[in-house]
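stage 2 :: seqdesign
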């Protein structure tokens, strides 16, 4: 696939995923059923593609550690995300998840010894925290019951960032589809067990929009979106790929406003602007600073 098309699709998928998550529960389907169905369908699709492409599967201890690291992001983050999505607008979900690269940088410095926490990047982390505080205050003014959902979303973002660092620590050379497939199967098993323990009953009915959202997330959100993302990482500079998390929060806010009639409050816009600025400062601030003072 041409790189520009892949880039546009990844931005679109990541921008629409929060709204699809909201739509994938309700209408006769609980949040746990929605995420379990998504992961099982995604794992099955990944297996079919692995067979179709003639890829090999790696069941070594090192590969299993990498699968488990990826599953932490899917299972730990997605369970909390789906629960929180019942109470929060999709645009807010996208903005909060936008701080994941900053959290990943912090974990990379603490766990991998990466020398990434420069003063400017610490400032970016603090600015992102301020943005989250503004979002929290604004959402609490609208919905007094939003506090647990926002806290769960921040924890989910932390799980997601930690997972990315652990995948890097336990990295094994293999096709991205095989990597995603292994993590999806572990996640699917985990959510199926959780569903069996807490409920264990199949939905008696499901609205067409709910089923469509689950199918969309299974195909694009869980498999093809990540395949194209790895495709971009292999063919574009990291700085170019880093534009994706910068573009996702504002586009997700706009999509939620246009399609789902979600409110664009002053606090949401201000918090999103501060978080996007923090991401840009984290990604390019040091380079700009060095060039400015190298003259």
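stage 2 :: out
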């Amino acid at each position: 696939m041409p790189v520009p098309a892949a880039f546009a699709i990844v931005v679109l998928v990541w921008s629409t995923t929060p709204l699809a998550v909201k739509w994938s529960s309700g209408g006769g389907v609980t949040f746990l059923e929605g995420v379990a169905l998504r992961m099982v369908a995604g794992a099955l699709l990944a297996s079919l593609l692995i067979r179709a492409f003639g890829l090999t599967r790696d069941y070594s201890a090192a590969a299993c550690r990498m699968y488990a690291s990826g599953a932490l992001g899917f299972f730990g983050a997605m369970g909390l995300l789906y629960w929180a999505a019942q109470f929060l607008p999709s645009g807010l979900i996208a903005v909060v998840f936008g701080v994941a690269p900053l959290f990943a940088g912090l974990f990379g410095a603490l766990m991998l010894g990466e020398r990434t926490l420069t003063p400017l990047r610490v400032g970016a982390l603090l600015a992102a925290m301020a943005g989250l505080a503004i979002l929290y205050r604004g959402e609490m003014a609208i919905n007094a019951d939003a506090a647990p959902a926002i806290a769960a979303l921040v924890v989910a973002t932390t799980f997601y960032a930690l997972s990315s660092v652990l995948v890097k620590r336990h990295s094994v050379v293999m096709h991205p589809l095989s990597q995603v497939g292994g993590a999806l199967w572990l996640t699917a098993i985990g959510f199926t067990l959780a569903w069996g323990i807490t409920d264990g009953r199949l939905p008696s009915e499901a609205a067409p929009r709910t089923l469509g959202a689950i199918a969309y997330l299974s195909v694009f959100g869980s498999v093809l979106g990540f395949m194209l993302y790895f495709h971009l990482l292999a063919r574009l500079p990291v700085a170019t790929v880093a534009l994706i998390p910068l573009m996702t929060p504002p586009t997700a806010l706009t999509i939620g406003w246009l399609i789902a009639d979600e409110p664009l409050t002053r606090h949401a816009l201000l918090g999103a602007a501060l978080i996007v600025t923090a991401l840009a400062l984290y990604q390019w601030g040091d380079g700009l600073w060095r060039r400015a003072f190298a003259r």
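stage 3 :: structure notes
- The chain has a mean pLDDT of 82.
- The first helix runs from residue 3 to 23.
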